[in-house]
């Protein structure tokens, strides 16, 4: 889709590396008609917009007080149909939670009117939190899964949409009939996305065995074959809950480990996203590293369902690639900003047992939420930061709503250490710890405005 050339003027912040924030107090970013970043200028206050190529006539979008542009968030693991259950989990743990809360709700997506209502809400809501890319699990239902893909396309959210495969250990009222129907229906959903977005510009199908316990050796191998033949991404759960891990050991006795169940099926590849990964052994971590499979860290869910504390620092030190996932509704929040906060706090609980090195900083959590997530979904060349050639998947953050204490921020000097004033680093920390969707003023995906706070005018 062609949009008007646009120049975004004002402070921008992005994650350079895991530990380094790039803070540019006076920036100017040009975005072309295709939604791609054409130029990035720094410290350009007072300078003119570049001449030529029609930039003189470009639309201008300016940051107002105490705001900045930030790359859009990437939710690497979210169950769209579970959105109505966000916050409802009692004292359950994974396996009874699935049977008590999750399967009954997901089964209701046989009804397309229900699917339409909920899926429209979840896509609108995640956009309002600045989630420009989401990796969705849908349900077993083909029409509802196709509808979720349509809604992402219409509302303009970059998305991976997976029809869930589950024929084992699932209730009679909600399951795939057989391995054959699971494969047939998964292929139907892939073909639907091919029809609405042939180049997978915005929406991509993703092969989704729910987890080892929902499948068997035969279906996992068949999905692994499909994954490699079609060169499509895949997603599943791994090592979330101790009882789940015991059952996997019992039911797949021929496999050396949980990770080896996926390895044997040909599913452990650079395009596989593994959610949770809490109770991995060192051998499994090494295997996942060797295969370059990716990890979605879901701290809110891991705490809510008392699944455990993922050892993020250990995984990072082992060279694994991680992003953040809300895992709605194991997780109670659909906000990646809140998830970043949860990641920071869970890491402090790990630190109480294992020492300070385990603590994640605000910068590290933001990296996982953006650039880290981009690697996890295989789009590091297109999203996650503000470089020429990347897509303008971005959010405008305004801090008035959550109240910075100072009006004395030095806009010209960059991060400054001045007592009594807030530095840019302070403001970013305040955003992470106290911000919410009131601070998300506007959101763009591929240069298209996909969300604006009430009252906001461009
Ligand atoms: N394992 C299998 N299914 C699910 C699910 O829906 N949520 C979570 N958190 N774990 C799972
Ligand atoms: Fe999940």
From TrEMBL:
Keyword list, A-Z: Hydrolase, Metal-binding, Zinc
Cofactor note: Binds 1 zinc ion per subunit.
First and last residue of the signal peptide: none
EC number: 3.5.4.3
InterPro entries assigned: Amidohydro-rel, Guanine_deaminase, Metal-dep_hydrolase_composite, Metal_Hydrolase, Metallo-dep_hydrolases
Enzyme class: hydrolase
Pathways involved: Purine metabolism; guanine degradation; xanthine from guanine: step 1/1
Family: Belongs to the metallo-dependent hydrolases superfamily. ATZ/TRZ family.
Full protein name: Guanine deaminase
Source organism: Saxophila tyrrhenica
């Amino acid at each position: 889709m062609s949009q008007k050339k646009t120049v975004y003027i004002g402070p921008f912040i992005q994650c350079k590396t895991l530990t380094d924030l790039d803070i540019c107090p006076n920036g100017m970013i040009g975005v072309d008609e295709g939604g791609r970043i054409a130029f990035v200028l720094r410290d350009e206050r007072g300078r003119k917009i570049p001449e030529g190529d029609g930039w003189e006539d470009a639309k201008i979008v300016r940051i107002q007080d105490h705001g900045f542009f930030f790359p859009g968030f990437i939710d690497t693991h979210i169950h769209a149909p579970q959105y109505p259950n966000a916050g409802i989990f009692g004292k359950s743990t994974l396996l009874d939670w699935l049977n008590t809360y999750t399967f009954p709700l997901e089964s209701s997506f046989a009804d397309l009117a229900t699917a339409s209502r909920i899926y429209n809400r979840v896509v609108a809501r995640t956009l309002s939190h600045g989630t420009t890319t989401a990796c969705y699990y849908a349900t077993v239902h083909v029409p509802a899964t196709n509808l979720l893909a349509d809604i992402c396309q219409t509302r303009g959210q970059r998305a991976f949409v997976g029809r869930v495969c589950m024929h084992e250990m699932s209730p009679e009222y909600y399951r795939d009939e057989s391995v054959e129907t699971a494969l047939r229906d998964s292929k139907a959903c892939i073909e639907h996305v091919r029809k609405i977005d042939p180049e997978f510009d915005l929406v991509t199908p993703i092969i989704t065995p729910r987890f080892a316990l929902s499948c068997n050796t035969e279906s996992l191998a068949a999905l692994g074959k499909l994954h490699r033949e079609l060169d499509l991404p895949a997603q599943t759960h791994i090592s979330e809950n101790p009882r789940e891990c015991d059952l996997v050991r019992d039911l797949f006795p021929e496999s050396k480990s949980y990770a080896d169940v996926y390895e044997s099926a040909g599913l452990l590849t650079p395009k596989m996203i593994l959610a949770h990964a809490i109770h991995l052994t060192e051998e499994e971590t090494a295997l996942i590293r060797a295969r370059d499979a990716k990890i979605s860290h879901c701290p809110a869910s891991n705490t809510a369902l008392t699944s455990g504390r993922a050892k993020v620092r250990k995984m990072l030190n082992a060279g694994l690639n991680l992003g953040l996932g809300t895992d709605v509704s194991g997780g109670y929040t659909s906000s990646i900003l809140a998830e970043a906060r949860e990641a920071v706090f869970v890491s402090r609980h790990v630190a109480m047992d294992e020492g300070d090195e385990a603590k994640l900083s605000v910068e590290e959590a933001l990296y996982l939420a953006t650039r880290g997530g981009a690697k996890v979904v295989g789009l590091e060349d297109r999203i996650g930061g503000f470089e020429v050639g990347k897509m303008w998947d971005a959010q405008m953050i305004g801090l008035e709503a959550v109240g910075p204490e100072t009006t004395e921020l030095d806009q010209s000097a960059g991060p400054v250490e001045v007592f009594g004033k807030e530095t840019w680093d302070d403001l970013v920390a305040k955003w992470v710890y106290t911000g919410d969707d009131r601070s998300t003023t506007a959101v763009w995906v591929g240069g298209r405005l996909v969300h604006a706070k009430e009252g906001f005018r461009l």
